[in-house]
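Ticket 4471: requesting a sanity check on a complex prediction with magnesium ion. Repro inputs:
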Amino acid sequence: MRSGIGWDSHRLEAGRPFVLGGVTIAHETGPVGHSDADVLTHAVIDGLLGAAGLGDIGTHFPDTDPAFAGADSLALLREAVRLVADAGFVATYADTTVVLERPKLGAHRAAMAAGLTEALGAPVNVKASTGEGIGFVGREEGVAALAVVTVETR
Ligand code: MG
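Returned structure tokens:
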């Protein structure tokens, strides 16, 4: 059994769709990025790749590659699961935390967990925390996410 950590953050800007864990949330701002800028899914991908010793998300899905412009991050997670399987590992669990001031995520947590669980092929727990009004999260300049992903040999 091995585990990997994932961290991601993206800047928030007005008029961007807010995709988090594959769920699009109605809000006046959304994260800026090359793909759909889904920080939660990116953190899970990095945790998964880390647990398998396969580098990081930028190694496999570079943000300079036009193929990944606007990419659905859940599809990238499914591809990462295939890479990890080829390396001889399967995910068994992921615990995650989204760090975000607004909007509140309570109404969306179950849908995010369900989509991530389906894509990872293992249970994903989604927690939420705020920036308490300080730092880039607290000032609503950005959103961040953390994940710890556990894998075992197939
Ligand atoms: Mg990212």
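Notes from triage: The chain has one domain: 2-153. Leaving this open until the requester confirms.
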